[in-house]
Specification:
Number of strands of chain A: 0
Structural class of chain B: mainly alpha
Radius of gyration of chain A: 18 Å
Distance between the termini of chain A: 8 Å
Structural class of chain A: mainly alpha
Radius of gyration of chain B: 18 Å
Number of helices of chain A: 9
Order of helices and strands of chain A: HHHHHHHHH
Number of helices of chain B: 8
Strand content of chain B: under 5%
Helix content of chain B: over 70%
Shape of chain B: globular
Strand order of the largest sheet of chain B: 1-2
Distance between the termini of chain B: 27 Å
Number of domains of chain B: 1
Oligomer: heterodimer
């Protein structure tokens, strides 16, 4: 399948699905593991962080795309991309935090505490960097960011659910905590490997 | 708090190892350990960045305003990461094609931010440099260990050289070089390392 030969919406949907399932950012590309291991103890905090990450990823990927395509490439300073991307992400989360704090106190308390964690979440910078390797248009880049963010949201919520259950059981010494979580993620990732090859975008 | 260099070194490598004790920097651990050669370059990049960014942040620690210190730290770190990126691209373009995005992600590697925040912002520059090297070496040891299990089991090679058993009776476990293998290996490793540590502390 070639992206150029597809309809506008078909290509967007396919990119979204492939970014969320066949190329899941957490389970196949290993990004955002640190905050995932730290936060996924409960379902509701997982949903909170996942939602925030999804939103920030979709928006900053679009911003970064515009910045790369219309500022860095014309000026011939692509090597500054890392610096530019991280500044955009940090500035965007900071701005978002201020806006949320101003407009909705309730949303601030559910989402606000996660926002500082997002700047150092490698999934967001990672999606922006992977996007550069692909010949996407603006809306396709947006779909890629949104799909990647959704994939991360889904994975961390599922892991949170399993960890809530496993808290009741008695584990061998040393296995509790990060070790068992990594093994659970391994089994989940095994399931997601089944999706691979379905789509190649 | 005063640390002796020896204490700092032991903490970084073993007692407070960034990977299995503090559970930081997991992403790159999982991603680059399918081939030992990739791992070695990644480790070089990480030691370089942790050491020098720790040193710089410690030098500037009295001049950085508290409120914006995160963004200043990120900027310092990303300058060093860009250097590493350019060096690796110039030296080994083939490896860079695979680990390129992960080299960029050293910026958000929590080990570096963690060390900057916990150590460099409170200690003297040279000691911080030392701490950075120690954490980097602790990270590298774990990565090299994992990679030298995954590559032979998954591809039947070590550093790109074919092991003799592969052509005779060994069938490669492809799963070891796919994402699930990485999770299982790191999970098992963390389990064993923590179990061993628990026993040591008790006795």
């Amino acid at each position: 399948m070639e992206l150029q030969n597809m309809g506008f919406f078909t290509s967007l949907v396919l990119i979204f699905i492939s970014a969320a399932f066949t190329d899941n950012i957490l389970l196949a590309r290993f990004l955002g593991m640190c905050s995932c291991l730290a936060i996924s103890k409960k379902v509701d905090t997982s949903i909170g962080l996942g939602g925030a990450v999804m939103f920030v990823t979709a928006s900053t990927t679009a911003f970064n795309y515009l910045m790369y395509k219309y500022v860095l490439v014309p000026l011939d300073i692509e090597y500054l991309r890392l610096l530019t991307f991280i500044v955009i992400i940090a500035a965007f989360t900071q701005l978002l935090e201020m806006i949320i704090e101003r407009f909705s106190e309730k949303l601030y308390y559910t989402l606000g505490i996660f926002l500082p964690l997002i700047t150092v979440n490698c999934a967001i910078l990672g999606i922006a960097l992977f996007m550069l390797n692909k010949p996407y248009t603006f809306w396709q880049a947006f779909a890629f960011g949104a799909g990647g963010g959704f994939g991360w949201f889904m994975a961390i919520t599922l892991i949170g659910g399993i960890r809530e259950k496993i808290k009741e059981s008695e584990l061998p010494k040393g296995l509790a905590g990060p070790a068992i979580t990594l093994i659970i993620i391994g089994i989940m990732s095994l399931a997601f490997v089944g999706f691979s090859g379905m789509l190649k975008i | 708090m005063a640390y002796t260099p020896k204490q700092v070194f032991l903490n970084g490598i073993w007692l407070d190892n960034p990977i299995y004790r503090q559970v930081l920097g997991i992403c790159s651990t999982l991603a680059v350990t399918n081939l030992l050669a990739n791992t070695l370059f990644m480790c070089f990049g990480l030691i370089f960045t942790t050491a020098l960014s720790n040193f710089t942040i410690s030098l500037l620690r009295d001049y950085i305003p508290k409120r914006i210190r995160m963004i200043v730290q990120v900027l310092i770190i990303s300058c060093y990461v860009m250097m590493v990126d350019i060096i690796i691209k110039a030296l080994v373009p083939d490896i860079h094609r695979f680990i390129g995005p992960y080299v960029g992600l050293i910026i958000t590697n929590c080990i570096i931010m963690g060390r900057a925040e916990a150590f460099a912002s409170q200690n003297k520059p040279l000691l911080s440099l030392f701490d950075g090297v120690a954490s980097g070496v602790g990270y590298s040891l774990v990565l090299i260990l994992i990679a030298s299990v995954r590559e032979p089991l998954g591809f039947g090679t070590l550093l790109g050289m074919t092991l003799p058993a592969r052509d005779q009776w060994w069938h490669s476990w492809i799963i070891m070089v796919m994402p699930p293998g990485a999770f299982f290996m790191l999970g098992l490793f963390t389990w064993l390392a923590r179990r061993w540590l628990v026993r040591e502390v008790k006795s």
